Amino acid sequence: MDSLDTTFTESLLQERDSWARPELDWVKAIAVNKSAVERRVSTLAGRRTVKKEWQAAWLLKAITCIDLTTLSGDDTEGKVHRLCAKAKSPVRADLLEALGVTGITVGAVCVYPTMVAHAVRALNGSNIPVASVATGFPSGLMPMTQRLEEIRYAVDQGAAEIDMVITRELVLTGRWDELFDEVAACKDACGRAHLKVILATGELATLRNVARASMVAQLAGADFIKTSTGKETENATLPVTLTMVRCIRRYYESSGRKVGFKPAGGIRSAKDALAWQVLMKEELGRDWLEPELFRFGASGLLTDIERQLEHFVTGRYSANYRHPAA
Length: 326
Known about the structure:
The chain is α/β, with parallel strands linked by helices. It has one domain: Aldolase class I (TIM Barrel), CATH 3.20.20. α5 links the parallel β4 and β5. 48% of the residues are buried. It is globular and about 60 Å long. It contains twelve helices and ten strands. The N terminus is likely disordered. α2 crosses α11 and α2 runs antiparallel to α12.
């Protein structure tokens, strides 16, 4: 692994026992070769491309990995219901018929905790899970008791997935034991729900901090690690993604447990989606192209993918308004 030089100890191989915290001194030895990371990701656009029917197939797969999201202050029950209708039928029926495809849905619908019940009702019978942000999203600056209560509330309302945001201060000041305890407590509060840990990488300052936080989050029980809230100045980038997926790969090789990955924020074009899919395929393998281990956190991506699919079918690009996100 040329871009991530990590010193491991036996703690990486320990099974969690009632959230007993492992020895984490080795985390300080994690380092990232930024130049090597940038060289690696620069090869993706030029050498890794898919065209024609293969591109259409990859884009259809991308749709199944989208967490269709609304996280706005003006969210309403009606807005959530429209989003859920799009989640169940993300591509126009005439395009799917021309492509010979049926049964395409998005990976999940992601909303605030107070909108979870609306989404659950709207998605009833679809098998599309509802995800909810929690723990004081997007800043994470709430007392821990309130953050845990927010998780429990969202799960009680029917959320099958929780997207928690970490306290960035713990990373910036190197308090790895406290970060482990925070993620572990949130995992416990999730109960039956899966936990996606948002690192807010645009606020972590360095790729080294991203790598360290990625390893600690996985050790503490994260089912997914996620780049961003989508509210930071800098959100998902390919260098950050490579750093995180190398951590996922190293953790899987050492522990045998597969942790998912979710880039979020700023991914708006089909071309972007393809670049992330190619990176996942090359770095982690075929399993990480499925929604069980890979998601896009996006609200506008679906529109451009649907436009590209229409171009494949008809040879013409249509206006965005023909493919409303909700």
